[in-house]
Amino acid sequence: MKKIILLSVLIIFLVLILTGCGDKEKISKVIDDYWLALSNRQYELAQTYCIEGGSRYKYAEKLRKEQDPMIETTFTPCITKWGWVKRGDAFVSTEMVITATDILGVTKTGWERGMSTTETTPSVEFLSKVNGAWKLK
Q1: How far apart are CA 70 and CA 33, in angstroms?
Q2: Can you list the positions of beta strands (E) in the chain?
Q3: What is the value of pTM for the model shown?
C-alpha cells in the first residue's frame, strides 16, 4: 500500500514538473512569435498572440498606424528571468534588442542610406492562459 501511495505521489510530481516545462516553452514561443510578427509588419498576426484590448494588442495597433515605411525595425527578445508561471498567469523579464535600419534612402530623420541604430532595453511580458493558449496581456 505504501508503494502505491509513493508511486502516485511521484507520478503527480512528475506531471506537475513536465506541465510547467511545457508552459515555459509555449510562453517563450508566444513571445518570440509576437515580436517576429511585428518585425515583419504583420500587425494583425501579432495581435492574435494577445488578449484583445491588452497593452501588447494596443502596441501592435500603434505600430501599425505610426510605422515609418522607410524604416525597417526588428525586435529580438531574450528571456532573462522567469518571474512566475502559475494558475494560468505568467510574468517574464526580457532584454529587447531593437534595430532600426533605413531601407529606402534618406528618411525624414536625416539618416543616410543603410544607416542603422540598435538599442537594448529591458522589458516585461505578462501573459494569461485563455482557452488553453497563452496570450500576451
Answers
A1: 23
A2: 71-86, 89-102, 116-130, 133-136
A3: 0.77
Residue 94 CA to residue 89 CA, distance in Å, equals 17
Dist CA 1 CA 18 (whole Å): 26
Question: Range of 17's domain?
Answer: 2-136
Per-residue model confidence as pLDDT tens for the chain (137 residues):
666 655 554 565 444 444 455 899 999 999 999 999 999 999 999 999 999 999 999 999 999 999 888 788 999 999 999 998 998 999 999 999 999 887 765 545 555 556 788 899 999 999 999 999 999 99
Whichever domain contains 101, its CATH number is 3.10.450.50
Joined grid coordinates for residue 30: 508566444
Burial class (CB within 10 angstroms; exposed 0-12, middle 13-18, buried 19+) of 30: buried
How many structural domains are present in the chain? 1
Place of cell 513571445: 31
Q: Quick check: 68 and 107 in contact, CB under 8 A?
A: yes
